[in-house]
């Protein structure tokens, strides 16, 4: 018997989100059914609702920062039991056999990962529906264990904002004593600061806004560098071991590249759009690098959640009711949130 | 007693090169005096003569692909003796004590490497003078040993074009079986093809010009990919382990980034100027990287020369007399040379 769930979604690129009823698939042998407690609001949700990246198929039910409790497990589920606190992030399936999947990089599955929403649904046809809903059915391989000691509301954004910043910090081996810059203090940036601090780095928040200094330091930054202050930028030239760039829109890169040490890397995680011109010499002089990074694999996501449990790290959030999602979207687009909205799904039940 | 040498140089950004007489410093304890046999003509020579990068101080005596024989050594020279075949590349000095120098990256000397021409001269004041001359005095630490079994004329461009392409291939650990792209078939690109081939890679010449295909294959390319052929570009998408980008001017990067595998790097060595806009997603989707690389350190340059001796690799060149340098410059700016001009310095003596 197919399951239904209450949800909130958009019927078109210009419509507000509104209540809907969606189908969830019947539980398969390796499936876990999850009662959703909280779901974070990611900027990608808004881009998909508004079809900014094209390819949106309506209705769109967004949400890929899902926290809930297991209510049912299929007969072959061996990792989870009823009552477990779990999470589902940006992906719900992948081929599990290609080179990327075998290297724990499901986000780059060569046969196409199934993303949590607006991705072709192998089970029901049509598109996948995300976490702005009361329940989700997901294969156990894509279900994450959430430590019971951390606040589950604050844990929701770890599933996207968390892993998106954790993955590059780990992949580029940020370690104790490294000087790490985090550019931009938003949903991603505030997690980057917390993680880099917890990894033992000397963390510098790089921002255009002097008024973000206090908050950056509260979150774990040891210094704040105002990128419009040319003297300050010069004083930090060629000194960073790693820079995590969370700016969500296209921007100039040369001023930030000037901050990198020889052989150091700046990783873009926020801007899936055109970057402005940059000077070849900004990379050539110092063998510097620019890279990109996309969320992270499932194994790495579990490692991140375990680390958060050990270090008691969650996101700074504002909790909203499902019914207030449209106002929340307006505020996100104005960067008016510290630092992530999380929907309390009890409001939909 | 100060030495003088016959030379060719430019008195201003708009002047042709003309005969001059320059001073060379007296031999110091660790200096080697070199009778110059050949000097390659690098595009950087022209940029400096024409003040394209600003900061040129006249007269400019270019030339940093120098091959010659030792005629005299200082009392503390222990690496070279009279008669040795040697080379001098882009640098003639560095502090030898900073972090970069201690890691064999003299090109990034934190106290400023002394480049072979148009760099502040610590000994005589003014600017250093390059290799378009009959002799040069150089500290032994910056003199390279040239294998006697390779053609000394063809060896000249190894000192810049050679190390510029060798260094990134080695630093990014190109190995047997890797699929390596070399973009652009000029002075740099033709060396990139030879080296990548000799390192055992599957080499793909990536060019806009179908008429370069035969020559690319003669030089060692296993395939030729015409970058304007969109079907061909798609067929090669996400398949390259490494791309060496020798395009000498600013250009679009997205089409080339699409060729890289997950985690693979494209290295810019040619364009010290503005690159066009590129899409953040070109890096984010696949955790791809763009880097820059500048010549190479002295130790690595010696390794490259030794490798050339073992594999009998030299540049493809056209030999000219010193007096024909101005015509050669015109031809270089039109890419009308296969693949490097080398001045026979006997013409100046």
UniProtKB/TrEMBL annotation, chains A, B:
Its cofactor is Zn(2+). Residues 12-343 form the Enoyl reductase (ER) domain. InterPro entries: ADH-like_C, ADH-like_N, ADH_Zn_CS, CAD-like, D-isomer_DH_CS1, ER, GroES-like_sf, NAD(P)-bd_dom_sf. Gene3D superfamilies: Medium-chain alcohol dehydrogenases, catalytic domain, NAD(P)-binding Rossmann-like Domain. SUPFAM superfamilies: GroES-like, NAD(P)-binding Rossmann-fold domains. Keywords: Metal-binding, Oxidoreductase, Zinc. PROSITE patterns: ADH_ZINC, D_2_HYDROXYACID_DH_1. One of its GO terms (molecular function) is zinc ion binding. It comes from the Bacteria. It holds the Pfam family ADH_zinc_N. Belongs to the zinc-containing alcohol dehydrogenase family. This is Uncharacterized zinc-type alcohol dehydrogenase-like protein. It comes from Bizionia echini.
């Amino acid at each position: 018997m197919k399951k239904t769930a209450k949800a909130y979604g958009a019927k078109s690129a210009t419509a507000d989100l509104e209540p809907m009823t969606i189908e969830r698939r019947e539980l398969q042998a390796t499936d876990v059914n999850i009662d959703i407690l909280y779901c974070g609001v990611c900027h990608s949700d808004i881009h998909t609702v508004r079809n900014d990246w094209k390819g949106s198929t309506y209705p769109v039910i967004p949400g890929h920062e899902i926290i809930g409790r297991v209510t049912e497990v299929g007969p072959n589920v061996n990792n989870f039991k009823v009552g477990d606190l779990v999470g589902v992030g940006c992906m719900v399936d992948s081929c599990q056999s290609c080179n990327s999947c075998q290297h724990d990089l499901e986000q780059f599955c060569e046969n196409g990962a199934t993303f949590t929403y607006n991705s072709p649904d192998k089970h029901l046809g049509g598109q996948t529906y995300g976490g702005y809903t009361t329940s989700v059915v997901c294969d156990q391989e894509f279900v994450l264990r959430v430590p019971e000691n951390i606040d589950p509301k604050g844990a929701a954004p770890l599933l996207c904002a968390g892993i998106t910043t954790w993955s590059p910090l780990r992949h580029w081996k940020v370690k104790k004593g490294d000087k790490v810059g985090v550019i931009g203090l938003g949903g991603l940036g505030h997690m980057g600061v917390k993680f880099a601090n917890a990894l033992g780095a000397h963390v510098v928040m790089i921002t255009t806004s002097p008024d973000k200094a206090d908050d950056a330091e509260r979150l774990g930054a040891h210094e704040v560098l105002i990128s419009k202050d040319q003297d300050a930028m010069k004083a930090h030239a060629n000194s960073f071991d790693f820079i995590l760039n969370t700016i969500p829109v296209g921007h100039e890169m040369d001023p930030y590249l000037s901050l990198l040490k020889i052989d150091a890397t700046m990783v873009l995680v926020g801007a899936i759009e055109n970057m402005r011109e940059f000077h070849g010499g900004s990379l050539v002089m110092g063998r510097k690098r620019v890279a990109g990074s996309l969320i992270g694999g499932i194994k790495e996501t579990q490692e991140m959640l375990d680390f958060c449990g050990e270090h008691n790290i969650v996101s700074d959030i504002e909790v909203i009711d499902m019914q207030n999602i449209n106002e929340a979207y307006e505020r996100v687009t104005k960067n008016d949130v510290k630092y992530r909205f999380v929907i309390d799904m009890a409001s939909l039940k």
